[in-house]
Amino acid sequence: MTLVPPLTRDDVERVDAWWRAANYLTVGQIYLQENPLLKRSLSVEDIKPRLLGHWGTSAGLSFIYSHLNRLIRHTGQDMVYIAGPGHGGPALVAAGYLEGYYTEVFPKITQDADGLRSLFRQFSAPGGIPSHASVTTPGSIHEGGELGYALSHAFGAAFDNPDLLVAAVVGDGEAETGPLEGGWKGISFLNPVHDGAVLPILHLNGGKIAGPTVLARKDPDEVAALFTGHGYEVVWVEGEDLPWMHERFADALAYCYERIKAIQEAARSGNWDGERPVWPMIILRSPKGWTGPHEVDGEVVEGTWRAHQVPLSGVRENPAHLRLLERWMRSYNLDELFEPDGSPSALVLANNPAGDKRMSANPHANGGRLTVDLDLPDFHDYAVEVTDQTRATERLESTRKLGEFMRDIYAKNPANFRLFCPDETNSNRLGAVFEVSDRAFAEHTSVFDVKLSRQGRVMEVLSEHNCHGWLDGYTLTGRHGMFASYEAFGMVSASMTMQQAKWLQEANHLEWRAKVPSTNILLSSTCWRNDHNGFSHQSPELLQVVLNLRGDVARIYLPPDANCLVEVADHCFRSRNYVNLIVQDKQPQPQWLNMDEAVEHCTRGYGIWEWAGTEGLGHAEPDIVLASAGDVVTVEAVAAAEILKARLPRLKVRFVNVVDLMTLYRPKDHPHGMSAKEFAEAFTTDVDVVFAFHGYAGAIHQLVHGRPDADRFRARGFRELGTTTTPFDMVVRNEVDRYHLVMDCINNSKVKPEGSHELYQWCEAQLARHEEYIVEYLEDIPEIRGWQLGKFAEQDALIEADDAQRAKEARRRAAFADGHAAKDRALGLS
């Protein structure tokens, strides 16, 4: 089938003119602050005082873009362009400008001489735009400043987008990164029936910032074998000779497009044999810095790493360089490219697609324009029943309720929601989603596989980078989802979390960027309960990373139980332009609040749990405030409060739980921050606070900075003390257990009621007993394993029974040892 007509002479003229115009605009952005159309010879005053930006990859990016424009004009294909090479920004800005959409969203950048001057002056300048394809670049859904994510973003954009084609240009420097290397596996999860397609274009231009790239120096047969092994049909385009490079690339592009459409048509007409399609890809080998100065000061630049950034860096000081720059810019034949008033010529404009088919204007690259709200089930339907009598008397795995919630979201939103998880969906107790959807997989399946099929839409691949990147591409094109990971390995893709937050933060300042569904991250299998995996799996570091992001995009939620978790998840799935981090362990845990209480608690973000503190305290001034944030440490804090109530009944204890961590900030530091009045009502202004925290204790001090007498906060949290051990021993090692918390309260309370000293000693004894017990019996002491709220007398009875049993066992062992010693003496063996 022929979908794209052969390249004609007119086509070549349009494509080449558009490409030359884009190259001219790219060079102008790097060098010029005045004289944008070279109406006179260049002078030093025309040159920017600081020459910043990257030329080396730009000509290749524009070459590809120009040909994709021709393809779109002939086919009407919806297409998004992802520029993987790090600093190809000026090429993408030039493209948007030539297509006219740049002026539509930035009206001050007019399509005339004044507009060109403004376009040039803003590039890599104070108050302007960065040198990569950032959020300010129309048509971009990919921040090119950090390498490695082009393919994962591309496949994320293609999932559930059957009519979209994503052109993903991969730089050969970027191809050396780990995330990009893993990204090629995206076709193993792409379904040609209900997904769009990704056309990878590997751009081999040979150089990085200061040396050669690996793939560019490999034998071409090895390179082809590598990508054939990944499952692609490799189409090569090589050279620099014009106009023949236009013909070769146009033919390759037409062939790949027709192969993609044939695969999709066969699959969608019921003729798919079920085997994973062999999708095409292009390898384009062209010189780095193509069409730029070939030689500068006797050294070859074009085709080498020297073309990477600014090939003529001395134009303000060296007249010869200035003349060379002018010759370079005039070589593009400006009279053919721009009208006298500075607007693009008719020849250039003839290569542009129309309206929203322009890649810079395509709605998929501004996903908020296409976003449809999720049809969410009522989260109240997943409520765990909790009464005053049953509060924290039974334990269940809270994340199972989230799994049930997401199961029904999948059912109600069959093409608008996905879970992305590194092979841990069942492990993190989210497996209810498999009741309505299999795991996605396009490779062959086995009779031994479970819930794995080509029709599946639950995304599991053992790569945090892929999962995070897929979610980014999915949400930035207007759909909804969640990335779920073991807590420690959220750090594998932490840089992606930061980059996504930066993107959303900048998007908030651009009215034309419609708000997209939030980036929702669930961390489970947390540091406190990785009992068998040990120290390598014990790290709450991503929490700290998100805490340091800007308040207009960052949210952190630490729900203490299942009802709070589903309420928080419902809120996050409805939100826009946030990075929502939810931390909730998967192990059985007490259930504290009924659904009405959970809604009130989570809506406020914190709450005083009067039932956990001293009864009847009301609004009286406490002697100590005991606070918690995080599920496991909340158990310890509540247990500590119980011990204090039972052993020191005259001590007035206020208990505060925080679920929205950002409420601890001042309002001027975060929009969720408590007012001064609210903060005083919860934490007082002068009473010491013992705070049990899920993450690093320093985070609490960061959060309460600037609050009244912030030094009164005594935070305990993870101290990088982990190992393979029992659950309770983890909190003991990090001194955030109930006994250390009780001792902290005694040390820091306003009063020292009678019995305080004895209770302190009792806590020390319990810690010593715990240490002996776990080594001998390989599990936690009975009163820890069987702890329930309001059962302190029963806990004491367990302690007494265990002490009696251990004493009896000790006497038996002593008697046994004495018997052996007597026998040895009788035999003369002692």
What this model shows, in words?
Helix 1 (9-31) packs across helix 3 (89-99), helix 6 crosses helix 15 and helix 20 crosses helix 24 (738-748). By secondary structure, the protein is of the alpha/beta class. A six-stranded parallel sheet has the order 12-9-13-14-16-15, with helices on both faces. Helix 20 (631-647) links the parallel strand 19 (624-629) and strand 20 (653-658). The model has no long low-confidence stretch (mean pLDDT 93). The chain folds into three domains: 9-360, Thiamin diphosphate (ThDP)-binding fold, Pyr/PP domains (Rossmann fold, 3-Layer(aba) Sandwich), CATH 3.40.50; 382-590, Thiamin diphosphate (ThDP)-binding fold, Pyr/PP domains (Rossmann fold, 3-Layer(aba) Sandwich), CATH 3.40.50.970; 605-750, Rossmann fold (3-Layer(aba) Sandwich). It starts with 8 loop residues before the first helix and ends with a helix.
Features:
830 residues, alpha/beta, Rossmann fold, 3 domains, six-stranded parallel β-sheet, five-stranded parallel β-sheet, 27 helices, 12% strand, elongated
